[in-house]
Known about the structure:
By secondary structure, the protein is mainly beta. The chain has 5 helices and 44 strands. The strands form 9 sheets. The protein has a 22-stranded antiparallel β-barrel.
Amino acid sequence: MNKGFFGAASLAAMAVAMPAYAEEASSDERDIVVTAQKREERLIDVPQSVSVVSGEALENIQATNFSDYLKLVPGLQLNQATPGFGRLVLRGVNTGGVASTVAVYQDETTFGSSSGLVNGAILAGDFDTFDIERIEVLRGPQGTIYGSSSMGGVLKYVTNKPDTSAFEVRARGSVETTTGGDESYLGSAVVNLPLGETLALRASGFYRDFGGFIDSIGTGGADIESDINSSKSYGGRASVLFKPSETFSIQLAAYLQNLETDASNSVDSDPSTGRTLYGRLSQSQFVPEFTDVRYRVYSGVVDADLGFANLVSATSYSTLSQSFRGDLTTQFGALIEAVFGTPNDFFQGQLTRVKRFTQEVRLQSPESDRFEWLIGVYYTRERGLIDQDFNAVEPGTLTPIAGLPLLGVATINSRYRELAGFANATIHFGDRFNLSFGGRYSGNKQSAVQVSDGVLAGGPNALPKARSSEDVFTFSVAPQFEVSDNVTIYARVAKGFRPGGPNVLAPGAPPEIATYGSDSLISYELGLKAETVDRTFSIDIAAFHIDWKDIQVFGQVNDFGVNFNGGKAKSDGVEFTTTLRPAQGLSFSLNGAWTNAKLKDDTPPLVGGLSGDRLPYTPEFSIGANADYEWELGGDTTAYVGASVRSLSKQPAGYDLAFRIANGRQRYLPAYEVVDLRAGVDFGRYSIELYAKNLTDSEGKTSLEAPANIPFGAAGTGVIRPRTIGATLTAGF
């Protein structure tokens, strides 16, 4: 898993996202429009820190997932060792808990889980980025409009809608080669089909086959298998838009994605430094591992202009399913042999599943130069499942060992319901001063049923149904002063929260930890957004302070993972982006962030954090630089070249009290830099692109697990993909 940061950079990706002809475009054409406050607004008018990455920019840098576009969103951090199995962090809001602090949306649909019982924090929806209009990243708590589990921010995928005015077909294909690994093959296609003046269909599909680059080794260092961490991602989206008039529309959409991984991107590493062992990217694996993640999102949005207000009804049903096999031979193999006299390999199988229904209805006023308002109600119902089993098998096989008793099974069925009402308004005091404010009142109820059995679980154990409920109020206030049409100063105070709930309990665990409470934070932000009249230069800078209390943390009780509440934490930071366009087609951007995120109190002893420790996976410094140049070759043909650099300072890993006491410090992952290059020629209907990712072959580390299920006390660290060279061909009409 990975870092935690921020970046006020509302214009963070402009250098890449803005087309080269923008200097000559009209003012309206150059405005970036976002829906951060659930109404369309100019980005510069939104009184909070927002980054936007356009679909064009995503294709330009060959981005298909979280890790590819981090360099375009300053401060966004990804803590990950397996595709589809990752944690997003913004502004340092992370203490290693299992409930999300960054909410992921696809259009109007929130995805994943609000509960801490189905690993929502580490199963962030890593949607494929093909045929995306833009990605919006909202930093800081968004509890007023977006609700629970958005205390760090929101990452929002805005998809391309069906278009009734034009027929479109486009396809892309890529081939890549990775240093020390197998080749990769990627393909995607989209079709937009008008079915009359009021009806249109849009459908897209993608297939990504990524070659592995990590080798499996035995305990003596001998090769067993090469390139074991290959993965596939495939799926698609279909949507239908019915728009009989300018005042009414219905859009129905379905999205599916499968991510299949043969092994994680974790390598054996030194537990003190996080540096790779054995001089190679290798993994000690006794039992072949895999992870399969499946996303399904079905949604319907009704938009009706009632004259006095706009009515929006957004309904969705989504599922997230993850199944995996994890090698636990190092942890349990010797124990099973000692007790039962049977040499063995040992693994854990697990299924995690969330089924979620949501309904939101809101009324929002027309655009006004005096008073604008929004009111709404929101309901969600979630059903969660974690189903685990523990197995001893013949060494080198997946054949169960006969004659052993039941070793371990555990099941948790959970329910989560939330009902909320929210409102937001903006008062315009004249032409230059605005005040935005809002509040949200929400109540949630949760229940969980836990059953376990087997030798490792202490025999049969069925606990009574655990229940919890709570009511929470969140708010935001944001005054804004427009110095001119191109310069805005704003302040923002906002509260966010994350639900508590029932706990998973080990046999004999103390009853006082049967439930844990919600945590909440209040953020104070001051920002400036400015650009020159001709928009050849822009700057976006923000400073923030976050007070966080009752922090949720995660520990172990008798080998059962348990949620706890700790004391307080804080995060201070500054984030900025500058963009320069000195000539037509030429653009530069520099973004950076500094974060000082620390515990203010010791965590519970079972967690291992001490006052003054830095919050996990939050580098103190993060810098990103982008440069692009596009020019005409004649006729409809254009060419471009570009480069990106991303640099992270060292970052703290998760808490470990024994290591902290023995070494007088936290564990840290090494600093690293990543350099990417790109070039292409666009012939109109066809284009060809060449690119290099991680040109310097940096071993950037994104997670650290220690102690881990690895021989000789080694740690497991997630690693970014080595140097990758690729080519893409695009055709469309």
